[in-house]
Design brief:
There is one protein chain. Helices cover 47% and strands 14% of the residues. The longest helix has 29 residues. Strands 1-2-3-5-4 form a 5-stranded antiparallel sheet, with helices on one face. It has a 5-stranded mixed sheet with strand order 11-12-10-13-14, covered by helices on one side. It has 474 residues and is an alpha+beta fold. Strand 7 and strand 8 form a beta hairpin. The model has no long low-confidence stretch (mean pLDDT 90). It has 3 domains: 75 residues, Phosphorylase Kinase, domain 1 (2-Layer Sandwich), CATH 3.30.200; 250 residues, Alpha-Beta Complex (Aminoglycoside 3'-phosphotransferase, Chain: A, domain 2), CATH 3.90.1200.10; 131 residues, no CATH class. The radius of gyration is 24 Å and the shape is globular. It has 15 helices and 14 strands.
C-alpha cells in the first residue's frame, strides 16, 4: 500500500502479509515499510546511521534488506501515528495539550541526547560521520546555504526591499557565532514531531538521513519552535528542563538556554526560506499558512534581544513583522466569502466555528458503506485512489453527495449575494479517515470550481490542510 510522502521525493509503501511470507528478510513481523529512494548516497546515510543507532539500542526502525543498487530498502514498520498527529488528537479546546500528549513529548525529548552524544559515548566519532549526506558537518558553507535560502526564497518572494551587502555582513557575524563551540555531537537536522512515530506508547525516530556533526542546540530549537506545534513558552521551558536533565554530561544550564535562542533565530530564518519556496512559490497551503506562525516566533526573538548583535538583520526582521501585521489586518477585513470545509471523527467532536458567526452544515457520512471495515483500506484515507475507487464503485457516497451539493450550492450562492464572508461545512464519520475525507475533498473542490470562492480544507484527524484560492470575486 502506498503511504503519503512528506517533503522529499522518496516513496513509501507498507507491505502487509503473514509472518512466513516475510521470512526471507529474517523478521517476525506482519508488515514492513518499503522505501524507494532517489539518491544512493542519501539512502546509504540512512542505512548506515540506522544500523549504528540500532546496534546502540536507540529506538529507530531496523533496516532489514537492501537492494543491490542501494536504491530500495525494507525497514521495520513503526506504525501510523506520528507525534504530530498524536498532539493534534490530544489538543484541548483552549489549545493546550492534555497529559497524554505532554508525556509523549517528555519521552521524546529525553531520547534526543542519546542520539546527539552517541558518537562520543560509543567512541566512534572518528568514523561516525563518514556516510553523512550531503556533508559530514554543519559548517560555514551549509549555514550560508540556509541563510541564502531565507534571502532568496522568502525575502525576494515577499518583495521585501533590503541592502544585500549589509545583510550579508550580519549573516557572516551570525555564522561565526553559530560555529563558536563545535564538538563531536550528532545534529539530527530534521528533529520535529512529524519525524517521531509512536508505537505501543513509545517514540521511534525516523528521517535522520540528513544528520551530520553539529551543535546540540539546533535540534532542540527545531523541535520546540516548530511553527505548527504551537508550543507555549511554559511548555517549551518544561521540555528544555526535561532535555537538560536527560543530558548525562555536565552542562551550564543558564548558558545553554541563552545560546539556544541564537539557534532558534537561525532555525526560524531557515524555516521561512522553506515556507517561502513551498508556500509562496509552489502554492502549498500548509506551508503558506505556517508563515504567520513563524513570523510570530521571529517577533518573540526580537523582543528577547536575540537579534541585537545583528542590527541590519534586526531591521529586516522588523519589516517582516510589520508586513505580516498589515497582511493580517487585510485578511481580517476581507469582504469575500470564505468557505471552511472540514472532515472529522464524531468520536473527537464537531469542529468549532472559528469565525464567530455560527451556522453552516454538519453532515453525517456514517450512513454510507465504510471502507475502514476492510483490511486493505485501514491504513489509507479518502484521498487515496483505492479508497476513492471503493466508494465510487459502491455508489452510496455519490447518492449522498447529490443532496449535499444542492444544499451547499444554494447556501454559497445566497451568501455571495448577501455579502456574507464565512460558511463552514463539516463532514463527520467514525474515524475521520475515509468517508468524511472523501466527501469534504470533493465538496470543497466542487464549490471552488463552480463559484471561484476561497475554500480552506482541513482534514482534521489526518493533519492535512489545503487552500483553494479565490479565483472570482462576485
Amino acid at each position: 500500500m502506498p503511504l503519503a510522502g512528506a517533503g522529499s521525493n522518496r516513496q513509501y509503501f507498507r507491505l502487509v502479509g503473514e509472518e512466513e511470507e516475510l521470512s526471507n528478510v529474517n523478521c517476525q513481523l506482519s508488515s514492513l515499510i518499503a522505501v524507494i529512494g532517489t539518491n544512493q548516497e542519501e539512502n546509504e546515510a540512512f542505512i548506515d546511521l540506522a544500523k549504528r543507532f540500532k546496534e546502540g539500542g536507540l529506538p529507530v526502525p531496523a533496516v532489514l534488506a537492501v537492494s543491490d543498487d542501494r536504491m530500495v530498502y525494507l525497514q521495520e514498520d513503526c506504525g501510523d501515528t506520528s507525534l504530530y498527529a498524536f498532539m493534534a488528537q490530544h489538543r484541548q479546546a483552549d489549545g493546550t495539550l492534555d497529559a497524554e500528549a505532554m508525556e509523549a513529548l517528555k519521552a521524546t525529548i529525553r531520547e534526543l541526547p542519546r542520539f546527539q552524544f552517541f558518537p562520543i559515548v560509543s567512541h566512534t566519532a572518528d568514523k561516525f560521520f563518514d556516510h553523512c549526506f550531503p556533508q559530514r558537518e554543519m559548517d560555514r558553507t551549509s549555514i550560508m546555504f540556509d541563510l541564502n535560502y531565507f534571502k532568496y526564497c522568502f525575502l525576494k518572494l515577499k518583495s521585501v526591499e533590503f541592502n544585500e551587502y549589509k545583510l550579508q555582513q550580519d549573516f557572516e557575524r551570525l555564522t561565526d557565532d553559530l560555529l563558536d563551540d563545535q564538538q563531536d555531537t550528532f545534529l539530527y537536522r530534521d528533529f520535529q514531531s512529524r519525524n517521531v512515530m509512536l508505537k505501543d506508547g513509545k517514540p521511534y525516530f525516523i528521517d535522520f538521513q540528513g544528520g551530520r556533526r553539529g551543535p546540540i542546540y539546533y535540534d532542540v530549537a527545531s523541535f520546540l519552535w516548530q511553527s505548527s506545534a504551537k508550543f507555549s513558552d511554559e511548555t517549551r521551558n518544561l521540555l528544555i528542563d526535561e532535555y537538560l536533565n536527560a543530558v548525562e554530561c555536565q552542562m551550564d544550564n543558564v548558558k545553554f538556554k541563552c545560546r539556544l535562542h541564537l539557534f532558534v533565530l537561525f532555525r526560524i530564518l531557515q524555516v521561512l526560506g522553506a515556507y517561502g519556496y513551498r508556500g509562496l512559490w509552489e502554492k502549498k497551503a500548509y506551508f503558506a499558512n505556517s508563515i504567520p506562525l513563524a513570523i510570530r516566533n521571529l517577533q518573540q526573538e526580537l523582543v528577547l534581544g536575540t537579534c541585537d548583535a545583528y542590527p541590519y538583520l534586526k531591521e529586516v526582521a522588523q519589516s517582516l513583522i510589520d508586513l505580516n501585521a498589515e497582511e493580517e489586518k487585510c485578511r481580517a477585513g476581507e469582504d469575500h466569502l470564505v468557505v471552511d470545509v472540514f472532515s472529522f471523527s464524531f468520536k473527537k467532536g464537531i469542529p468549532e466555528d472559528q469565525s464567530g458567526n455560527g451556522g453552516g452544515y454538519v453532515f453525517d457520512c456514517r450512513s454510507t458503506n465504510n471502507p475502514g471495515r476492510y483490511a486493505e483500506y485501514k491504513t489509507l484515507t479518502g484521498l487515496d485512489q483505492p479508497v476513492i475507487n471503493f466508494l465510487e464503485q459502491d455508489g452510496e457516497i455519490l447518492t449522498f453527495l447529490e443532496s449535499v451539493y444542492q444544499l451547499v450550492d444554494f447556501h454559497v450562492a445566497r451568501f455571495q449575494q448577501r455579502g456574507f464572508t464565512h460558511l463552514q461545512v463539516s463532514f463527520g464519520c467514525t474515524g475521520g479517515q475515509h468517508r468524511s475525507v472523501y466527501s469534504a475533498q470533493h465538496v470543497a473542490e466542487h464549490i471552488h470550481e463552480k463559484f471561484g470562492v476561497e475554500v480552506r480544507i482541513c482534514h482534521r484527524e489526518q493533519g492535512i490542510t489545503q487552500l483553494l484560492p479565490l479565483t472570482s470575486h462576485r
